[in-house]
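Thread: Newbie trying to understand structure tokens

Hi all, I'm a second-year student working on a class project, and my supervisor (Dr. K.) asked me to get a predicted structure for one chain before our next meeting. I've only ever worked with sequences, so writing a 3D structure as a token string is new to me. If someone could post the tokens and maybe explain what I'm looking at, I'd be very grateful. Here's the chain:
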Amino acid sequence: MNRPQHLAKSDTSRNGRKQAGFTLLELLVVLAVLGLVAALVGPRLIGVLDRAKGDIAQVQIETLSTALKVFRLDVGRYPTAAEGLAALTARPSGLESWNGPYLEGNVPEDPWQRPYLYEVPGKDGSPYRIVSLGGDGQPGGDGDAADVSGP
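---
Reply by user tm_fold:
Sure, no problem. This is what the structure looks like when written as tokens:
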């Protein structure tokens, strides 16, 4: 009994070539190689991201410092410790010369999702200091845990 050509079982395609595919062994080898690459590159990439967070904190502190300087030009002083950085986005009571908001949106959190500390007066005679406590949330530290401050 002859079967029609289109019903015959075959592992070849219509043009006569064998169909290509991956074996389970080939897939496992590829996954193992990808795992090794991820194990080698992953820690380095995480280190770069941690350093980037410190850079982001420094840029945000500079932005906050600029907003504080504009606040001072309008009001004649920097925000008090009680007013804090919130004075950059909402008018403190009794300040008629406030011309803000001085930031778009809310005061940003540091890259580790914690509020920046605002100290009045700052260290070494500066009028204020803005501080991020780094990755560990504790004063001091090294690397990712190092404090970032300004101006």
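A couple of things are worth pointing out once you decode it. The longest strand covers residues 129-132. The mean pLDDT is 82. Feel free to ask follow-ups in this thread.
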